[in-house]
Specification:
Largest sheet: none
Shape: globular
Radius of gyration: 22 Å
Number of strands: 0
Number of domains: 1
Helix content: over 70%
Order of helices and strands: HHHHHHHHHHHHHHHHHHHHH
Distance between the termini: 19 Å
């Protein structure tokens, strides 16, 4: 049996897995999705998607990872190859390394913005604008500030003019990520999760309490914000867009389809529980997202900007709410600079617990398949991330293009592949036995049918819907910027396939040598 690291404690494991899921999506993406899709109307398909897609697929990833711990491998290529006796299995499985790797390239850069904003808020360098006029007017200074931070105000149609301080904070953020990864699973990732997760919840609760005490000059208060979030407009439930957005958010928030949970679960011992651990991690994530994330972002926005203003802000993306609307609110309340500092520090801690998780599959692949030491694997990954991050940092449109193909389209594709490999290409009965053995709680038998039939069918529907809605528009884009990002992804896939081929050839030679 190949020696692998293991989690030190169950609490550390749960916090690490929750940290993987709790990220910028909880505090930026979820409030925007809810506000843009009818508030309370969004919560019904969200909860339905959580039960019939999120939790079942989450358990599948946990089971795949625990299976990987038995064979001494913690990434999808080896796990798929062991379960599915096909020459294609290991090459399809490499998506479970490529997807989180590409995401962490641009995610680390966005994460560095939150650290920069937190510092600027602390020293009083964010804009101060009175809340007068329409939404566009009082958010304009914050939009201008964000544009200047990322260098989008350059005259070039190809390149951003990134300021030196933005680049510096990116380097600091990347080095901090690499240091944590260098420390290892237990001493690095688990230790950070045990510190960062309580801090995230403390900061979020402080901010939520402050938001609940706010009121607008027009008389709006916390009840108006909570009413928008929890009073459903049932007519919106007939809109396929709402259901699609809800399912997509569930995938995003639980980190389903990234391959990171599979790798995290591979550091379990072969007889460790996955059912209770999976539910516990998901519950912590949902509390952070639904209770804390929405109660800060949506409630504060509705109090100050009203329902119509909040929906207008949400229509223009997550950055408008997180980097513009909330700073505008904090700039107009007592001790606003402190609360702004706390808000962006919260986002930074949430981001870093996710980015280290997204980087771990690539490290595990280098360790498992090429026998790299932890130090060598982190150094190789660090060099790769530093070089490739210059694409989303300096090339206009590259970040959005990478996010679509990997963080949206690829995520659903890989989640579908995980379900198909485990319950169809392997053996559904054996898969169910793997899922239900040695657990502290029993998984209800109805989930067997959900995992084998319902979840894959819904994933295919979601994939087709996304393809019909977004693929034609995406494929029609032919800017040089776009093709640079596409070329990078295609090139990375080709290189990854070559690496898989080399690793398996090396493994075959070692097996021959061992047998002789």
């Amino acid at each position: 049996m190949i020696h692998r690291e293991h989690w030190g404690t169950r609490l550390g494991l749960i916090l690490a897995v929750a940290g993987n899921a709790i990220g910028l999506g909880n505090f930026l993406r979820f409030p925007v999705q809810a506000a843009d899709n009818g508030g309370g109307a969004f919560m019904i398909p969200y909860m339905v998607s959580l039960l019939i897609l999120g939790i079942p697929l989450l358990w599948i990833e946990w089971a795949l990872g625990r299976y990987g711990s038995k064979i001494g491998h913690g990434t999808a290529p080896a796990v798929f190859d062991s379960l599915w006796k096909s020459k294609l299995a290991k090459y399809i499985g490499i998506l479970g390394v490529i997807i989180p790797l590409v995401v962490v390239i641009y995610y680390t850069y966005i994460e560095s913005w939150t650290l920069l904003y937190s510092f600027f808020s602390l020293i009083g360098k964010l804009p101060h604008t009175p809340l007068e006029g329409n939404v566009q007017d009082y958010l304009k200074p914050f939009e201008t500030f964000l544009v200047s931070i990322i260098g989008a105000n350059s005259d070039s149609s190809l390149f951003y003019a990134v300021p030196w301080y933005t680049y510096l904070f990116f380097v600091i953020t990347l080095l901090l990520n690499l240091y944590i990864l260098f420390r290892g699973v237990s001493a690095g990732i688990e230790k950070v999760a045990r510190i960062a997760m309580p801090l995230i919840f403390i900061m979020a609760i402080v901010l939520m309490i402050r938001v609940f005490t706010l009121s607008s000059p027009d008389g709006r208060n916390v009840l108006d914000g909570l009413g928008f979030l929890w009073n459903p407009d049932f007519s919106a439930l007939t809109d396929p867009k709402v259901w699609l957005a809800a399912a997509g958010q569930v995938f995003f928030t639980l980190s389903v389809g990234f391959g990171a949970i599979l790798t995290y679960a591979s550091y379990l011992r072969p007889k460790d529980d996955i059912a209770l651990n999976g539910v516990a991690g998901a519950s912590v994530n949902e509390f952070a997202e639904v209770i804390l994330g929405a109660s800060i972002g949506i409630v504060a926005s509705v109090i100050f900007f009203g329902v119509a203003g909040t929906q207008h802000i949400a229509e223009n993306g997550a950055f408008n709410l997180g980097f513009m609307a909330l700073p505008a609110i904090f700039a107009n309340i007592p001790y606003g600079e402190f609360f702004g500092f706390l808000w962006f520090l919260l986002l930074f801690f949430a981001g870093i617990t996710s980015s280290i998780a997204l980087a771990q599959p690539a490290i595990a692949f280098l360790e498992d398949e090429f026998k790299f030491s932890r130090k060598k694997a982190v150094l190789v990954l660090g060099a790769f991330l530093f070089i490739t991050a210059h694409i989303p940092i300096f090339i206009k449109k590259a970040l959005d293009e990478m996010d679509f193909w990997v963080g949206t389209f690829g995520l659903v594709v890989f989640a579908l592949l995980e379900a198909l490999v485990f319950f169809w290409f392997y053996n559904s009965k054996k898969a169910w036995n793997e899922l239900t053995r040695d657990n502290d709680i029993q998984i209800p038998s109805v989930f067997y049918y959900i995992m084998k039939y319902v979840a894959p069918a819904l994933l295919i529907i979601i994939l087709l819907s996304w393809s019909i809605q977004q693929l034609p528009a995406k494929l029609s884009e032919n800017d040089l910027n776009v093709w640079i990002a596409r070329g990078f992804i295609i090139g990375l896939i080709i290189i990854s396939i070559i690496l898989v081929k080399l690793a398996w050839n090396k493994r075959g030679k070692e097996n021959v040598s061992a047998s002789t």
